[in-house]
Amino acid sequence: MSKRTADEIAQDLFFGAVRDRAKLEREVLELNTQEQANYLRRLYRATRNNLIVWQLYAVYRQAKLPIPEDVLRMLDRFGEALQTASGPKEVAKALGLTGEKGGAQGAAALAKAKRHLHLVTDVHVRMEHDKSLPGAQRWGPERIFAQVAREKKTTVGAVKAAWRRHLERIEPKRAGSATTVDAITAALRPRKVR
């Protein structure tokens, strides 16, 4: 048995063997992909925007991971509908790229839903944290709205409007005791897009 150098031992101690590092990188990639996919699934359930199905497909393909059965089923459904499509509007509908009223369901609607989700989630998390602070250290809603607006590079009015729409969606009996899960679920519910 050959004696290993200090550099080899340090290499193994701090970085692991090359094979172990590759395995770790793969595990991290799989975990990140799962987190992205779970977020996209929640967003899909809330908005029913079929662009998200295509995003899910892309996330798994880019990570070179097997595509889950539920995503493949949705893509199969699009493929079956494509077989009978005969014009640009029917093709868009077959691919799930039209809204409830037949109009385009574009990336702008999806981006708006995501922006709303992030605003409401940030406000809710900060308000929950604010409740745990002693009275003199609390920020209060106005200061929280201003901080979120600054961080998200939007106006205080936009943050307040998103929060107000969110509160209107939560059942009145639970408005005072809504959990973070309630906040995220309510933020993801579809609303009229202009």
If you had to describe this structure to a student in words, what would you say it looks like?
There is one protein chain. This protein is an all-alpha fold and 194 residues long. It has two domains: 9-94, no CATH class; 107-188. It has helices at 6-15, 18-47, 51-62, 69-82, 88-94, 107-132, 141-152, 156-169, 180-188. Helix 2 runs antiparallel to helix 3 (51-62), helix 3 (51-62) crosses helix 4 (69-82) and helix 4 packs antiparallel against helix 5 (88-94). It is flat. The model has no long low-confidence stretch (mean pLDDT 76).
Instruction: Pick out the low-confidence regions.
Output: none
The number of E-state strands comes to: 0
Shape: flat
Helix percentage range: 55-70%
| Strand portion | under 5%
List SSEs in N-to-C order.
Answer: HHHHHHHHH
Distance between the termini: 73 Å
State mean pLDDT (0 to 100 scale): 76
> Major sheet: size, sense and barrel closure?
none
Radius of gyration: 23 Å
Structural class call reads mainly alpha
Number of structurally distinct domains:
2
Q: List the total number of helices.
A: 9
